[in-house]
Structure prediction request, 152 residues.
Amino acid sequence: MSPLHEKITNDMKDAMRARDADRLSAIRYLLSAIKYAQIDATHELDDEEIQAVLRKQAKLRRDAIDQYRKAGREDLATKEEAELAITEAYLPAAPGPEQIREIVRAVIAETGATGPQGMGTVMKSTLARLGDQADGRVVQGIVREELAGRGG
Prediction:
């Protein structure tokens, strides 16, 4: 069992002891997603693979939050936000907007993009550098801002 999997399992046991039903439910959901990914992969997942599963779960939570807000279900959105926070606690810290902006500016300089028509090229290179660490929507917003400021 990988160290991250052990940590999540131990946190589940702690939540059981503390009778923290919300945290327990969120952690069980994560362990279930990891188990399904493990079955699909036909081998025990390492920390990197588990982090990929957790990033996917975080994205699903963010999408659900957006949908609940659009439907006017603030109660469910708040519950999803709490579960998202639990999920993100197991992931390494994502780069902040300023770090992303620096990478975007470097990519723009390298590619010579001059306006919004270079969006695809800049997005592709930026996401390749960031890997799965940053939210694509945040990156897209920053790329759009930077390219708009360059004569678009």
User: Anything to note?
Assistant: The chain has two domains: 3-88, 97-148. The chain has seven helices and no strands. The CA atoms of residues 86 and 134 lie 17 Å apart.
